[in-house]
Each structure stands twice: as C-alpha cells, then as structure tokens.
Amino acid sequence: MTEIAAEVTDLLQRLIRNGCINDGTPGSGQEIRSTELLAAHLHGSGVDMQTFEPLPGRASLVARLPGTDPAAPTLLLMGHIDVVPIDPEGWQRDPLGGELVDDVVWGRGAIDMLNLTASMAVATRRIAASGRRPRGGLVFLAVADEEAGGALGAGWLAANARDAIACDYVITENGGVLQHTPAGERVGVTVGEKGICWCRLRVHGTPGHGSRPLRADNALVKAAEVVTRLSGYRTAAHITDAWRRWVVGMGFEPEIAEALVDPARVWEGLDRLPTALAGMAHALTHLTVSPNVIHGGEKTNVIPGRVDVEVDIRKVPGQTDEDVLEFLDTALGPLRNDVVVELLQHDEPSESRVDTPLWDAINRAATAVYPAAMCIPTLTPGGTDARFFRALGVPAYGMALYSRAMTLTQFSSMFHANDERVDQESLRLTVELYEAVARDLLG
C-alpha cells in the first residue's frame, strides 16, 4: 500500500465512523465531529482554518492556502461530511464500521461522498506541507447539511460568509468513472445538475367508520391512486444542449444516438442501453417523479380524512416549477381537485460552461492516468452543493478518478443505498488527480 493510499484510507475510515447522519432535522448531522477530525489532520500543514457553525454542531470547515500571486486563480475543493440515514439490516457489513476488507473500505459515505472529502483533505495537506507554494490559492471546504439541501452548509456560507469561500473554480462530487463505449474509453465530468422540486401532496377525504367502507371518501384509497398515477405517467422528453454533447461524446451507434436526441424517439434509444446507463439517460432527459414518503391514518377502524404523500420531482435544465404544477394537473386528472400541493424545497437546474482552464487541467490529469480515455461533460440527476457556486457565476465541476474495478453500474447503485464501498486504488487515484489539477491550474 502506498503512503497516499494508507493516509486517505485511514481518514475515510474515521469519517465513516463519525456517523454524521443527516435526517433533515436541525439537530441531526452533528458534522462538528468531522470538522474537528479534518482540522486535526490539516494542523501544522500551513493552511489557515475557519469553522462556521450556524446551529450547534452543524459545522463546516474552510481551510485556505493563499497563493503567491494575488492575480492567479483560486481553486476550491468542496466535499460534504454528512451522510444519509441507514437501514443496517440491508448491509453486509457494519455501515458505520469503516471496515477495510480486501483493499475495499465499506461504510455509509464511502461513495457519497466521504471518499472524495477525505481525498480532498489529503491532497490539500500534501500541497500545503510540500513547501512549494502555488501561485494561485487553494481552498478545502468541508460542508455540513448537503444531504438536506445545504441550508446549514454551502447555502449558508454563500449567503453569510461569501468572502470565506471566495474562489474562481470549484471541484466537488461526482464523476470520474471510466466507461467503455463503442468509440472507446470515456470519463464523465459532471458540469451541471437537475433542479429539485420536492412536493407534499395533501390528499383530502372524509373521516368515517372503517366498518362501512362502501362509497366512503377514503383519503388513503385516493392517495394510493395518486401514487399509481404519478409513478405510471410517462413525462415528455426534454432534450438539452448538454445532453446532445454527452450523446456525441459517448460515440453510440448512429441509430441509438439519433433516437436519444429525438424527443419523439428517445425511448427507442433507452431500450437499447444497459440498465444503469438507461436509468441515468432517462433521468437526464425527463422530468422525473418518485413518490417516496406517505403519512396518514390514525386507527385501524377509522377511515382517514387526510393523507400526505411526499414526492421527489427533478427538473431538467429549461424546466420550471410551473412545469411541475402543470404535470401534476395532467397526471392526476380529476383527483387533482382533492389534492393540495405544497412545495417543500425547490432549486433551479444549473450548468457550468466547459471552455475553462479548469476543464483543461482536469482533462490533462485524467488522461495522464487513462491515456486512451476522453473526458466528456455530463449532468447528474441528483442535487449537489455546486449549484450555490454556479449561482455566483463560479464554474463548478464534479470529478474524482476511479480504478478500473469500479463499474458505472456498481457506482450508480450505491448512492443512498446499501453496501457503499470504495477500493483503495480509487482513493489513491482521486488524491493524485486533485493534486495534479491543483498544481496544473494554480501554477
């Protein structure tokens, strides 16, 4: 095991064991455990550190290495330190154990995204402690609350401490998986993301006695129909320029490529793709709707008069909240009269241009490891904290670098799921990628 692999493995294991689980409530997360760990790891390297704590325990860490030339650019490496809740019964290993088995680290956050956060911290320490100060500045930002929307993390910093996170370029999650295509090897770099529109659908009925269900106005029965209609409705394709660039970059067979960029034929193309790739391709070309939470009913013999359904809806760039409301009207039909819609959280889609020095530096660093590969821009269907920087006009990309052992299918299946794990070779490659990009871009 190399020195880099040993260092980043140990740091990742300790981050996993901190168990900064964010369930969306203000008191969860307690990311201060990991900001203290990261600050201790960086101590003595030469970086200036600040901790921001908008609520007790909800801490983010900023570590800045000033450059020697004020006119040179500043690169910010941003990783979140919170993770989503866990159902331990579905895991093969302790999800908070951080176990190392056969050169693979297991645990919640091993892919989303404590692996990258640990790699960023190690790369920052190595550059700061090397004694060779770059011309440009380097910032490591470990943020709280990403998994609940970032209001207590990157969003709070962008609104309340903008000078502390001032930069010209950002690297965050995700990207960096090597893909094999008919045209050769490709490495996806995330340049944009869909917009969130989380909704609560309050379904109304009339309370009554459970012993007399005939013609009852049962809100739960209506809610079941609402869920069925939402999950079964096929939304229209929405093709973006970013999607067209990705299709070209992937080098698909002409028939598949033509179908994937034609709104009327996109499903023909999806049917020709492997399952994992088809799922991503569908998400990046459609308004997606996933009913995920339901609350209702009080007692077995009481017909409920109200049931709440929470739905994760994601907008493709170019779509708005008004498009979401129009979809709900159409999909629910007459049921819409019994449903009150509440927007729980909404963010606009975001995208960064690719004609930047950071893009060029990432491409050089990735192809130095995989000479036969080409970096291609892609979107992510999930939300990231990159959107806060894009809103400030700062180009932000998602990038890491994974070993050949990591397939796109495996990678995609682990987000917010069971058995998150990452191999040590991927950890080492990601540290070296960040270090190479920083030295290339900053001089």
Written account of the structure:
The relative contact order is 0.18. Strand 4 and strand 5 (104-106) form a beta hairpin. This protein has helices spanning 3-18, 32-42, 114-129, 154-160, 219-232, 241-250, 254-260, 266-271, 275-283, 321-332, 357-369, 386-390, 408-413, 424-442, and strands at residues 48-55, 58-65, 74-80, 100-101, 104-106, 137-143, 169-172, 175-181, 184-193, 195-204, 208-209, 288-296, 302-303, 306-315, 339-346, 350-351, 374-380, 396-398, 421-423. The longest helix is centred in the last third of the chain and has 19 residues, at 424-442. The chain folds into 2 domains: 3-181 and 351-442, Zn peptidases (Aminopeptidase); 193-346, Alpha-Beta Plaits. The radius of gyration is 23 Å and the shape is globular. The chain has 443 residues and is α+β, with helices and mostly antiparallel strands. Helix 1 packs across helix 3 (114-129), helix 1 (3-18) packs across helix 14 and helix 11 (357-369) crosses helix 14. The protein contains 14 helices and 19 strands. The protein has a 6-stranded mixed β-sheet with strand order 1-2-6-3-7-18, sandwiched between helices.
- How many domains comprise the coordinates? 2
- Strands side by side in the biggest sheet: 1-2-6-3-7-18
The profile of the biggest β sheet is:
6 strands, mixed
Sheet-strand content, in percent, reads 25-35%
Helix percentage range: 25-40%
Give Rg in angstroms: 23 Å
Looking at the chains present, what oligomeric state does this protein adopt? single chain
